[in-house]
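dumping the sequnces here before i forget
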Amino acid sequence: MGIAQKLASNQKQVAISEFFEKNKHFLGFDSLARSLITAVKESVDNSLDACEEARMLPTLKIQISKIDSKKDIIEMKTTDNGPGIPQKSVEKVFGQLLFGSRFHAIRQSRGQQGIGITGVVMYSQLTTGTPTHVRSKIATEPTASVVDIGLDTRKNKATKSNSGREIWQTDSGEFVEHGLEITCRMKAKYQKGRQSVWQYLRMTSIVNPHADITFIDPEGEVHHWPRVTERLPGKVESIKPHPHGIHLGQLQRMCNESQDSRMTVFLRGSFSGVSSRSAKELCEASEIDIKAKPKSLKPEHVRALLESMQGERTIAGKPVKLLNPPTNCLSPIEEMLIKKGLSKTIDSRYIVTMTRAPSVSNGNPYQVEVGLIFGGSMPADKHVEVLRFANRVPLMYQQGGCLLTKAIEAVNWRQYGLDQAGGKGLPKGPAAILVHLASTNVQFTSEAKEALAENGEVMEEARKAIMEMGRGLKKHLQKKKKMAKTQEKFELINDILPAIAEKSAQILERPIPELSGSITKIMSAVISETQTTWNKETKMTDVEIVLFNYTSRARSYTILCTWPEKFGASLVNNEMGGRKEATGVWAWKLATLDPGERVTLNYSLDGLEKGDWTETDVFYRGSQEVIGATKMDEKFLEEIRQQEKALKEAGIVSNESENLQEDVAEDAEGIPMDKPTVEAPEGQQTLFGGEN
Amino acid sequence: MGIAQKLASNQKQVAISEFFEKNKHFLGFDSLARSLITAVKESVDNSLDACEEARMLPTLKIQISKIDSKKDIIEMKTTDNGPGIPQKSVEKVFGQLLFGSRFHAIRQSRGQQGIGITGVVMYSQLTTGTPTHVRSKIATEPTASVVDIGLDTRKNKATKSNSGREIWQTDSGEFVEHGLEITCRMKAKYQKGRQSVWQYLRMTSIVNPHADITFIDPEGEVHHWPRVTERLPGKVESIKPHPHGIHLGQLQRMCNESQDSRMTVFLRGSFSGVSSRSAKELCEASEIDIKAKPKSLKPEHVRALLESMQGERTIAGKPVKLLNPPTNCLSPIEEMLIKKGLSKTIDSRYIVTMTRAPSVSNGNPYQVEVGLIFGGSMPADKHVEVLRFANRVPLMYQQGGCLLTKAIEAVNWRQYGLDQAGGKGLPKGPAAILVHLASTNVQFTSEAKEALAENGEVMEEARKAIMEMGRGLKKHLQKKKKMAKTQEKFELINDILPAIAEKSAQILERPIPELSGSITKIMSAVISETQTTWNKETKMTDVEIVLFNYTSRARSYTILCTWPEKFGASLVNNEMGGRKEATGVWAWKLATLDPGERVTLNYSLDGLEKGDWTETDVFYRGSQEVIGATKMDEKFLEEIRQQEKALKEAGIVSNESENLQEDVAEDAEGIPMDKPTVEAPEGQQTLFGGEN
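..and the predicted 3d for all of it:
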């Protein structure tokens, strides 16, 4: 036998389960500490996905127990109130790799591959030799099914034992209507800190505000993250592939496997974004008969079709126009909820959040959301904390190799007021930055789904969103600085000047001079001061805005403020009237303010809890700068209105907000309107960049 | 139908090929530029593996052509002179994922999974719809087989067309005896720079000095990296799994599948490191009958066996002693070749390399090799260049997420003379650091094999090796500084002092005083100066070492120098005699040197080319410091001898070097021997940390 034959004789087929058993670190089972987090993650992801698909509000319980500390044997038990899994499906879901429902579906989901939970079963079996106990109850059956699942890795098939049925009651004796419980033992280590089960669940609760999560740690301590909203995330619908994201080999296969009788039916039925008209045009541009059977297309026709789809073939010099894919396949968290989640979890002084409009990369819809929190008790001399999420799942490992981290590092943070060595890399400062990518096809660097792979378009979207937030931070810091300076000057003039005048008058034995004119002249500013305080008695948040005119001219203004209308707050005890300009934006047109005069606005916010709203953003319209408030950028306001309109059309927002757009321009008593500031927003920046 | 049933009805099995087609970025096919590098890499890896297994010196040719620049269609054609693949195996090797010979073998190889080249076929088909053309010639058949291979991703099976046989002649008309040629077209981008095909092949040639690589780029330019050694890497042997790296689930399976009639046979035959005696002891500690059939072991017995294997069960309080696994499953590059490869590729002033002794992690033998080059034309204000390798394959992507990078970052480089912001992270300076991990089971973070996953033990080994190199760098920099200072002082004294004396004498009209005593007194040092120059006429490298005694006492020394004996150089024209102390180390015992006296050593090196050897390291034995030379650390010398001995025993080193160890201690004319310096080496540091 020659050497070539000898070498070839050793070759054989490897089962996918053998592959992943050997490469279990691809699945996130590398260190003992990480293995436990991976197991919890896979189980929690599955529960949240199942609940969302079944439109149920998830209630999860995760219990970690140490079985043998010396040998690092740990038991994980996770329970959910989801739809459960029918008995005959249990063994495939848990005991067969690459078995699942989400692989071919084009929509946002946590699980995609059909690997995760089977990986947990495999790891348990490999490290402790024990199967995973599964209890599943579905609504249509009276009892729960129970079974012990293992994995024959040579064949990628489940092994099952001790299967049966039983009545499932909770500890308190209630009958469980539906749900799933998984119990498994594995070699693992429980640890605390930044990379821990606790942290994973805490992060999960930030981006899944509709979930109720209870964690019982090995010491028996109970950690509870209650749901902060009863609203389930929007239902996501599977979409067809979009022609822009199709590869030639894929198109060949789709044509080949199609049972459609004619091209137009095939094109409209198999793709998103293809109308009757564009289906015909695609055929025309490709020189294919619209009545041709897709199955019998010649290779050169398939190639031509792809070229037409991707705009390389045209009709009369123009590419065939295709619609964007629908974006109801995505489920962003939305700014308000990110903010609420963040502020509940991290103590800080300033929060800004932002959700970009959905985009499409290679035919896959995706959407970037970001949040930044600043100040509070966070350390000023350390790198900012990075909170990464993909499809509502926290990413805990491989931070350095992740696209989302790189997007943060690619921004020049010095210009926004944060320290950054050499003008690149992670900035330093008392801040945390959150980035969430929602996508129908999140491209991770490996099966463990801990870091996002390179993608120029997603990177650019994330970078833009982050820069926009950065600008918000810069404004906030500048405003703080300016206010502090003005305060100092004000105190100097108002306290010391009269004292000097009095002293001088005393010495010279002359009357104390009238100073108000001089003070006005020296200050030469309009100042606003805002106080937001919790009123114990009324259980309301009281807001007071005072405006001083320390200039020598009469001034006219419209004052605007933000309030958390979307959180359910209502604006009450508002004696000055005014009107609503957009959701969460109120405006008061003030009477002319004479030199040296002041005016006070008072109102309360009802429907909030203590700590929900601790600082109010104040804006103004008028020609003279108001220190302590921000000039209203009409473009921002316009965008908020557009966003509202879009959300209303999509049926997402229920609370009506009158469109008062038409009478916005006329304002401020003849003082000429300012143009919107030059710094145009690149996305839909929220106005709610207030402090809380 | 209930919701649970409805959800379950969508579940189905996904083929591994569908999985990797969707997740092609796991395999390294993310960006167009990287896809091309991945394709080249998979093909080159396979060729090098096949040649090594067949014990053939590899000659590779890689040609990249642009087929359609507008559509980014590129053709890759790779040819090797390896053993070829038998016709009937071709379709499985190229058209079936997870098919290969190296998955179950425990030894060092580039390919492991049986995924790589099939991934290339899959990517070509997906992006251009075309199959991959394979031409294979094996030595025992008169003609080559040709076939076009595609992949039915729904089934993970090859599709083949146009198969046949033909006579394979090279462009110059020679008949090809054996070899493999792969031609495929894919959507990809050719680019230059740090992440390019050119750079990948250049790096490959550094760590595969036995390979001859020719690259023809899309402009038709030919790049050739000839082999720098005719010696094939040591043959690697597959080993059995070691008991220390076994998991319970695996052991259960091994017992289950065993056909052995008794435990002792099973234990000795299935594991490495288990002798007859330890097999019996393992049974005893586990309370298993040594005659028991492995197949019929009860689960608790298997558990007990694992505990005994891992030292948790003991006999008379002692764990069962197992041997380490053999390390002939590894194939390190070896210091000399790393150095030769590096110095040919990167212009620099100083090189140090180091190969650590093999270690074992979880039953897997592994070995770390490092190299550092400093100075030359490298930029001083940038981060050092990092060259990462695993099993002789360059790693080009995901540098930040790789264990090898983290090992470099974990070292405090400031103490070794390099800039490092905040005392961590990549250092800055005119240096490049090479790290190579050779292992029977390299744990990558993903199938693309671009970054190593976390592993505490490997990390520690790499860190130690790097620190050792760092110490070498520090010494080099200190020596440079000291020499410069002495030089300055010497010039001052030797040039200016006589001038002043002369001038003074002139003015005072007195005779010029005799200064040599004063100079000696002021210098109070023994100085050595070494010159290494290329002699055009003789085609040899001439070395001159001069030793000055600028002290007031007579001094005795043994002077030692290094020369590249392993590169094939011989030491000639050595009129002062002396003797060889170890491979590449020559020694001269000098006659006593009186105050103010000097002595000159001259010799030449034959068998080198210009530029091969440009600076000589000089060492001394003696009590008074010699500026310009290094005190010989006898421990180092001893280690070189040990290493030589080990290599000779392993049959790797052919050139004999006499062991003169016994008469080393007696030396230097009664001047007491110095103890070896305190800074003990942690590995087998090379003495060849010289400049070149």
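Chain A touches chain B through 81 residues (CB under 8 Å).
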